[in-house]
Amino acid sequence: MTHTLDTNLGDLISEFYEHFLAAYGDEELASVATAAVINDLIGQSATRSRDAAA
After folding, report:
1. Whether this model's pTM surpasses 0.85
2. Res. 50: pLDDT tops 80
3. Is the C-alpha dihedral spanning 17, 32, 42, 48 positive or negative?
4. Among residues 52, 22, 46, which one has the least CA distance to residue 34?
């Protein structure tokens, strides 16, 4: 897997999904795990932005 600065959210979601699908072998579980990771990343970003503005 090659990481570049031009990775977009769709690429990131696809990478997480493929990783979890390979790890769990279940499409639904991979989908839920991907959503959880993306939500965590977005939450962390929002927290950092809020903290920086304070």
Report:
1. no
2. no
3. negative
4. 22
Instruction: Report residue 26 as tokens.
Output: 């279940």
Retrieve residue 45's tokens. Answer: 């970003």
Q: What percent of the chain has pLDDT over 70?
A: 89
> At 12, which amino acid appears?
L
Question: What residues contact 31, with CB distance under 8 A and at least 6 apart?
Answer: 17
Count other C-beta atoms under 10 Å from residue 20's C-beta.
Answer: 20
- Rounded to whole angstroms, the Cα distance separating 17 from 11 reads 10
Q: Where are the alpha helices (DSSP H) in the chain?
A: 9-24, 27-53
The three-state secondary structure class of 4 is coil
User: Cα dist. 48→4, 22, 25, 28 in Å?
Assistant: 23, 31, 34, 30
